[in-house]
């Protein structure tokens, strides 16, 4: 089997959303989108559709659908191991001669609660969602935009059917269905905890911290509203407002996922590993002088630096499980990155994969990301499950790909919405430490969704 790469005759000014909108209503269509961001890691956009196989995990069972037979089988095996197994079965070891990041392979989402398959954790929080814990498609073709080169490419496999270049190019000259209905909330946002509830839970976390159970716990509230209309239209609006480098839209049979995340979880290129945890936040201000003051306050905050360092240490430990001894480094500590709603404190941790381990081993060993659990991770996750009323599902999980050339890139699903059964869910949380202030932490959760909840309410 060989991988074919064809440059498309599409202007670099063309937004990939103009192509993807023709697929956005089709189940298992997915877009990994740099969101028109100018961020240093916003180089590629990747769109896929029509998988040759899907793997959906709920609890202990993974359902495996094959396009070739249109039949579903079930397995109780490790879901990440199943992804690896079926990739090898479907694609073998193809000849790959491209530097593009995705050459076909696995693409989709790993929900936060999938972590319960890898660690012994409680299952107390209510779980009302239809969306599975893992939803991965195996894709034999993709359209990729390289923003640095200003080029579009069609990647396909000789053993599987794919649209040809003319078919993709002609999409730009065809209209999308006129039956699309505008996205609109049909009631107001409501949280699964009041401010009083949050502060009560905050105090409970403080008790655990003082008792030495943890150094840090991430506590989140969930917002919910009813809606009608097309989720893709909501994505387009939020994308324009946030311009987040790890944006994504995923259309599943019973739900849609909208992500405008600024955070990378794990990237693997060759043997090189990178993770970039975010921990530390200040709101943006409309007046430039005040906005600069907020940025400087975050940069100099001893509390936020300490909080960030705790998670850096956690991630150093997590990736070292599958990296060469002595290879894990921290080349960047406490950098400031600014996004539409907030300034963030970001660090970079790197390592080199050890022989005999691949990116999927790394993903399982570090899942879910430590920046959205707390430290130590397992005890923090136990406390989260005790105190948060509902399961997290996609929130604080990961979206990304594992390519046949062994490359991987994944996000942390913050600033991420789940749309199912005409209900839209959005979460916001933050890391709590012993010197946190409850009212300030509560306000921080609102700051993080300042470019989401009001934006959708106004549609």
TrEMBL record:
Source organism: Neptunicella marina
SUPFAM superfamilies in the cross-refs: ADC synthase
Domain Chorismate-utilising enzyme C-terminal: 195-448
Keyword terms, alphabetized: Aminotransferase, Transferase
UniProt keyword Signal present: no
NCBIfam families the record matches: pabB
EC number: 2.6.1.85
GO biological-process terms attached to the record: folic acid-containing compound biosynthetic process; L-tryptophan biosynthetic process
Domain of life of the organism encoding this protein: Bacteria
GO molecular function terms noted in the UniProt entry: 4-amino-4-deoxychorismate synthase activity
Designated gene of the protein: pabB
Organism ancestry: Bacteria, Pseudomonadati, Pseudomonadota, Gammaproteobacteria, Alteromonadales
UniProt-recorded name of the protein: aminodeoxychorismate synthase
Domain Anthranilate synthase component I N-terminal: 17-154
């Amino acid at each position: 089997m060989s991988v074919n790469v064809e440059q498309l005759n599409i202007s670099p000014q063309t937004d990939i959303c103009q192509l993807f909108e023709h697929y956005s209503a089709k189940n298992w269509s997915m877009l990994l989108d740099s969101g028109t961001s100018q961020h240093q890691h916003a180089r590629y956009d990747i769109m896929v559709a029509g998988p040759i196989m899907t793997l959906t995990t709920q609890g202990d069972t993974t359902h495996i659908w094959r396009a070739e037979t249109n039949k579903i089988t079930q397995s109780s095996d490790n879901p990440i191991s199943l992804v690896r197994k079926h990739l090898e079965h479907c694609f073998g070891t193809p000849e790959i001669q491209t530097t593009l990041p995705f050459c076909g392979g696995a693409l989709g989402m790993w929900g936060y609660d999938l972590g319960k398959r890898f660690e012994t954790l409680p299952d107390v929080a209510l779980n009302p969602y239809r969306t599975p814990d893992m939803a991965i498609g195996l894709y034999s073709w993709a359209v990729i935009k390289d923003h640095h080169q200003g080029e579009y490419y069609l990647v396909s496999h000789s053993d599987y059917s794919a649209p040809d270049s003319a078919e993709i190019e002609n999409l730009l000259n065809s209209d999308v269905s006129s039956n699309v209905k505008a996205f609109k909330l049909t009631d107001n946002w409501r949280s699964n905890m009041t401010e009083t509830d949050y502060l009560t839970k905050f105090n409970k976390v403080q008790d655990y911290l003082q008792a030495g159970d943890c150094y840090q716990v991430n506590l989140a509230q969930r917002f919910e509203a009813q809606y009608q209309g097309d989720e893709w239209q909501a994505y387009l609006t939020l994308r324009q407002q946030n311009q987040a480098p790890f944006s994504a839209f995923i259309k599943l049979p019973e739900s849609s996922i909208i992500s405008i995340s600024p955070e990378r979880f794990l990237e693997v290129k060759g043997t090189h590993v990178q993770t970039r945890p975010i921990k530390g936040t200040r709101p943006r201000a409309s007046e430039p002088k005040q906005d600069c003051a907020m940025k400087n306050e975050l940069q100099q905050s001893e509390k936020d630096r300490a909080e960030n360092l705790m998670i850096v240490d956690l991630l150093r430990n997590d990736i070292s499980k599958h990296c060469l001894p002595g290879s894990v480094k921290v080349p960047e500590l406490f950098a400031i990155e600014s996004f539409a709603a907030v300034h963030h404190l970001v660090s970079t941790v790197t390592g080199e994969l050890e022989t005999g381990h691949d990116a999927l081993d790394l993903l399982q060993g570090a899942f879910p990301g430590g920046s959205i659990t707390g430290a130590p991770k397992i005890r923090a996750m136990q406390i989260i499950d005790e105190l948060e009323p509902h399961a997290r599902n996609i929130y604080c999980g990961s979206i990304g790909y594992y390519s046949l050339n062994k490359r991987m890139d994944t996000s942390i699903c913050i600033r991420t919405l789940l749309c199912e059964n005409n209900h839209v869910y959005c979460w916001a949380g933050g890391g709590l430490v012993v010197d946190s202030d409850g009212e300030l932490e509560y306000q921080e959760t609102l700051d993080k969704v300042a470019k989401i909840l009001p934006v959708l309410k106004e549609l």
